[in-house]
């Protein structure tokens, strides 16, 4: 009896007796009970048990489905899709994509999972990744133009994510340089771009995207910044995860296919329109030093344009935070 088989029985949020599940799966009731305990302790799945009624997952689970994802994708993106890997649990979808790349996987590989045990954000930060509640996605892509031609890629990915959310009826999303997805200044998601290869020749990128869809409060206790999820943004009616993931791939795969030749310039104006900190006083920490100034958007290479007391400068990396104006 696999975890996914048992979860499929409970995904609708209705009560199921232990005996009914055991009979349907052809196993003992004890085996069901042990697997349910593992779901709660190892996967962090919220389970409710009521004597005489059985077990249920409150609110149910919207599980990812490979066939549904392929069916929902539009033909242009579907034609660019390589292997599609949907996992129950993985340490990190980016790490799994890297392992598969080292084992010979080609560009267009998509790795997604119900849960990450060691999800990562920028600068090694932990990405809270409860089971079956959010989107954890990594796309592997090969480029021939070299890593220097990929400047601004994470910003373009942010624009693609906002467009995919818009297709699902989610509005009011903004971007924070270089890779945060915000709603009313609360973090909704993030992008993690990892590259390897030649600065001037063949290189490979793994584009990771994480989006909070319906974050359980218990899991959110570990988040150390202001956050939100699509459930809150949509008055409790977040988009279905398969539809959202398909929409993301519809935007991301064509972007990656074209970016090697087009670069960031075609995406710059769209990013500027979504800039959450445009014209705002900011403090930027980079290279162990702090710089204060006014955010003036980004240049054609994706660098942050920071207006300081001594003039305007371009910043290619750092952690930006808004400073309160008093």
Overview of this protein structure:
The protein is built from eleven helices and 14 strands. The radius of gyration is 21 Å and the shape is globular. The model has no long low-confidence stretch (mean pLDDT 89). The protein has a seven-stranded mixed sheet with strand order 3-4-5-9-8-7-6, sandwiched between helices. By secondary structure, the chain is of the alpha+beta class. The chain is 32% helix and 27% strand.
Keywords:
alpha+beta; 7-stranded mixed β-sheet; 14 strands; 326 residues
How is the secondary structure organized here?
Elements: H1 3-10, H2 18-25, H3 29-41, E1 48-50, E2 54-56, H4 66-72, H5 75-78, E3 84-90, H6 93-102, E4 110-116, E5 135-143, H7 153-167, E6 173-176, E7 180-183, E8 186-197, E9 203-211, H8 217-220, H9 230-233, H10 241-262, H11 265-274, E10 281-286, E11 289-298, E12 304-308, E13 311-315, E14 319-322
Parallel strand pairs: 3-4
Antiparallel strand pairs: 1-2, 4-5, 5-9, 6-7, 7-8, 8-9, 10-11, 10-14, 11-12, 12-13
Helix pairs in contact: 2-3, 4-10, 7-10, 7-11
* Total count of strands: 14
Whole-number average pLDDT?
Answer: 89
Largest sheet: 7 strands, mixed
Evaluate the radius of gyration. 21 Å
Uncertain runs are none
- Helix percent band: 25-40%
Shape: globular
Order of helices and strands: HHHEEHHEHEEHEEEEHHHHEEEEE
């Amino acid at each position: 009896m696999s975890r996914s088989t048992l979860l499929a029985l409970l995904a609708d949020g209705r009560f199921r007796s232990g005996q009914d599940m055991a009979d349907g799966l052809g196993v003992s009731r004890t085996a069901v009970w042990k697997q349910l305990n593992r779901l709660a302790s190892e996967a962090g799945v919220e389970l409710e048990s009521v004597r005489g009624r059985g077990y249920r997952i409150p609110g149910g689970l919207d599980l990812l489905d490979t066939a549904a994802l392929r069916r929902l994708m539009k033909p242009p993106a579907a034609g660019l899709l390589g292997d599609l890997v949907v996992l129950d649990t993985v340490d990190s979808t980016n790490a799994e994509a890297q392992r598969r790349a080292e084992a010979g996987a080609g560009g267009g590989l998509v790795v997604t999972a119900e849960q990450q045990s060691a999800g990562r954000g920028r600068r090694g930060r932990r990405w809270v990744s409860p089971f079956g509640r959010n989107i954890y996605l990594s796309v592997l892509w090969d480029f021939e133009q070299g890593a220097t031609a990929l400047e601004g890629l994470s910003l373009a990915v942010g624009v693609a994510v906002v467009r995919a959310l818009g297709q699902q009826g989610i509005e009011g999303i903004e971007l924070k340089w270089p890779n945060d997805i915000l709603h009313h200044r609360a973090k909704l998601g993030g992008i993690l771009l990892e590259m390897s290869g030649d600065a001037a020749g063949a290189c490979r990128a793994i584009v990771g995207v994480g989006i909070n869809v319906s974050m359980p409060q218990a899991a959110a206790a570990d988040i150390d910044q202001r956050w939100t999820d699509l459930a809150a943004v949509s008055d409790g009616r977040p988009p279905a995860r398969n539809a959202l993931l398909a929409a993301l791939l519809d935007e991301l795969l064509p972007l990656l296919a074209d970016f090697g030749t087009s670069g960031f310039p075609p995406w710059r104006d769209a990013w500027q329109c979504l800039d959450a900190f445009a014209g705002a006083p900011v403090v930027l920490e980079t290279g162990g030093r702090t710089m204060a100034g006014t955010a003036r958007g980004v240049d054609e290479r994706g660098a942050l344009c920071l207006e300081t007391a001594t003039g305007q400068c371009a910043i290619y990396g750092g952690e930006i935070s808004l400073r309160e104006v008093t």
